[in-house]
Specification:
The chain is mainly beta and 137 residues long. The protein is built from 1 helix and 11 strands. It folds into 2 domains: 33 residues, no CATH class; 91 residues, Jelly Rolls.
Length: 137
């Protein structure tokens, strides 16, 4: 998205038009776009089953395990990920990754990676509620 000024014409009140410059985005929109454009996901490698931790919010997690492992989503009361948090989990090794959950957490979607070199994403959509995109049952 390109923000900035655009040329426009407005009624000059005397039966004609005058050229003016108009901001395409507000300063708050520009700040939000800059934040998104400058964001880099942290790269995390896992070799065994694990519980998600707050520092992994927005992370790209690669499982290099040769055997199946489990990634467990904790209750919000234990680890309070912000709503909208997206975590990507990739099965880089031969071991399938299953997303599990603490009692009280709801996962909507298929909870396993499809195959080696395939990924899924979990997105926090509410208190203790997550959607899963890209998994298989």
């Amino acid at each position: 998205m390109a923000g900035g000024l655009i040329k426009a014409f407005q009624d000059n009140g005397a039966g004609g038009f005058q050229e003016c410059e108009t901001e395409l985005y507000s300063s708050a929109d520009k700040a939000a776009v800059a934040t998104i454009n400058n964001r880099v996901a942290s790269l995390v490698t896992k070799t065994a089953s694990f519980d998600l931790v707050l520092s992994e919010a927005g992370a790209y997690i690669r499982s290099t395990s040769a055997t199946a492992i489990t990634a467990t989503v904790p209750l919000s009361s234990s680890v309070d990920f912000p709503s909208g948090t997206i975590i990507t989990i990739r099965q880089a090794g031969a071991g399938q990754v299953t997303v599990n959950y603490a009692i009280g957490v709801t996962l909507n979607g298929d909870r396993k990676t499809a195959a080696q070199h395939k990924s899924l994403q979990i997105i926090k959509v509410g208190n203790d509620t997550w959607d899963i995109v890209g998994g298989i049952s």
